Amino acid sequence: MSEETKHNNQPENTEETNKFPKAHLQKRTVYSPDGEKIEVDPLQDYYLQDRPERRDPRYRAVEKFLNWARSESLWILGFGTGCGSIELPPLTTPRFDAFRFGIAMRPTPRQSNLFIISGYLSIKTLKRAIRSYEQMPDPKYVVALGSCTINGGMYFDSYNTINRLDKYMPVDVYIAGCMPRPEALIAGFNKLKQKIKEGRAEGANEYVQRFDEYKANQKQIIKDWNMPDYNW
Amino acid sequence: MENIAAKLLWTFLGLLIVLNWGMLKTSLIRKIVARVGGRYGIRWYQPWINLIKLYGTRGQLSHGVMFYLGPVFRIAGGIGLFLFMPLIFGDPRWSNFAFAGDLILLLYFKFFGMLGMALGAGEGGHPYSAIGVSRGLSQYTAVEIPFTLGIIALAVQYDTLSLTEMVAAQQGGIANWTIVTNPIASAALLFSMLGIFMHAPFDLVKAPNEIPIGPPTEYHASYLGVLRTNAAILHITEAILFMNLLFGGANNWIELIIKTFLIYFITVFIGVVFPRFRIEQSVRFFFGVPLILGLLAIILIM
Amino acid sequence: MKEILERINQQFNCIGHEFQPENLSWVQVDKKQLVPLLSYLKHTEKFTHFVLLTAVDWIENNEFQLNYLLTNHTLHQDIAIRVMISRDEAEMETAHHLWQQIATYQREIYEMYGIDFPSSPRVHESFLLEGWDGIPPMRREFDTKKYSEETFFPRPRPEGKDPQTHMKQKLYPNEE
To answer: For chain C, what are the domain ranges?
Structure first.
């Protein structure tokens, strides 16, 4: 019985309790051309169904060297979540030139290690942002841009936007402003680099440690949960 | 060379030099392009930092055996191409394992890497990787046509299939280089060089905007590190191939470095002027003028 | 423009009309005559460009108001048609057979106000809000600030740091 519950990572909103069922995401039985019966569950990840685990650094000297390398080559995920993402293209223009700091924009979460949450997050975007954040490989860092991530900002009384970002994912650096100028962004990146070099930026491990708390908060907000519990 | 261990050691040393020169060339080219655009550009030691970061990623997941073997095939193709390429003419230490008839083997090894990458990318679990793979392979097939025709023309002209003998026939001044003695075959080979390097305007397969529907979507951490290492080795080795075929080979390392840098710069010059071609446009392009030039080269040689 | 309005007055039963700056005029009609009026304006009077469809919530009079805005590009004139619907049975006839993009506006209005447009394509699918199970949020009886404070976790203001007094002391320290 304990084996089943250990690997049984079904979402809590099963078809009976999910108020927003989608026809193409239900469990169904499919018959192959040979007549074999196959059970298909679209929400289950067939490669990895376990919970994530902590990955702590092992040797201090090696980790110091690797942290220096990680801080000097920050690859940003090209996912503009809110109106702050308009401050990212000016960084690549000749006036501010972020490429000389080693910053590059990558299109997939698999190849990036920095996620910039730029501005407000509506419930729809929060679902996709969580999915992208969980698909990034360790170690990963989150920078929260703008005052909407701190206390709700301009949209503090809206029915559709969240007020505090660090209830849903761990944040390393906040950059205040509405919107912060590119100089403020570069100052924020410098602060993040310092934090990484000191070894204090272990956001992925913190996410794993407080996994249940984050998941409960996320599922309380996102009522239309149609993804696995952890998106590998 | 009698001693196989010593030969392996010299080959390994050559591989290290080519790898580091490849990474340095990447950052130099990007820095030059950035300076032309008014920016400072990336630091010259940035590719090494990227590689250290990629190899030092903690969490990494695999989608099965074929996914793991994709980059392995690719780097096998790259290192295999390097193993049979004579680097410096007249010096048996740096001639790797070149032998008579190695030109055909080189053609095989170049395509081997792309095939392995195709198999691995299809296993990535990403539904659109297959589209990117089919696009990349079709462009590569179109590029190989003027390449093969040009090589056959050169083989007939020099009456040999060995790269070392081709380089030997080009010694003695610029007037003996293939560019001057056989301009039509050289033109066909230069056209195919643009496609082989996969720099702009033929870089649809590898461009960052196109990655979400391309082969390297799911490759991260060590896999991406292996792919980038291979890119560094492969570009220099292909430039050395064209140097041996068209520009008279190299007699020492300084000449090799300068010539490969300038050969790669031809593609960069063309790349900054033209926008990116779509796959059907590039296939149509390679079936046009380069094919005619290649056929003309063979007809004139006969 | 006045001739067009006179012609409309003859054919349909207009309740009122007014002019705003010279190229915008308003016409108010009854609910049943809206679609014939739109069809007449599109085909005969050449108001072929449909601009927008919005709704207003008059909770005091217990009714909804729908505004349709059309444009005539040859005369450079805009005309806005106003319809009042009762708030308890909020239903309206669909006009997507005239312009197909009205279907999107009708989806948004159904989601935000609760006004139903039966036989409009895909009007009951969730459009802007995913997983919304309360009352349509743009209705004026919905208190959005209260909802936001209850559902999302607001950050409490730190003690003794009121921005107004702080900036006043910083910028004008000599005033009282």
So the answer is: 2-154
The verdict on a CB contact (< 8 Å) between A137 and B52 is no
Rounded to two decimals, the pTM is 0.85
Question: Can you give the residue ranges of every domain in chain B?
Answer: 4-301
Residues of chain C with pLDDT below 50 are: none
Q: What would the pLDDT profile of B104-135 be if each residue is shown by its tens digit? A: 888 888 888 888 877 777 777 777 777 778 88
Q: Which chain A residues are closer than 8 Å to B63 by Cβ?
A: 47
Chain B neighbours among A 196-215 (CB < 8 Å)?
204
Indicate the fold that domain A60-221 takes in CATH: Rossmann fold (3.40.50)
Region C2-154: CATH code: 3.30.460.80
Calpha distance A148→A162 (Å, rounded): 8
Q: For A90-148, what is each residue's pLDDT tens digit?
A: 998 999 988 999 999 888 888 899 999 998 999 999 999 999 999 898 889 999 999 98
Instruction: Say if the Cβ atoms of A124 and C145 lie within 8 Å.
Output: no
Closest to A107 (Cβ–Cβ): which among B59, B212, B220?
Answer: B212
Task: State chain C's maximal CA–CA distance in angstroms.
Answer: 72
Find the CB nearest B34 among A48, A99, A108: A99
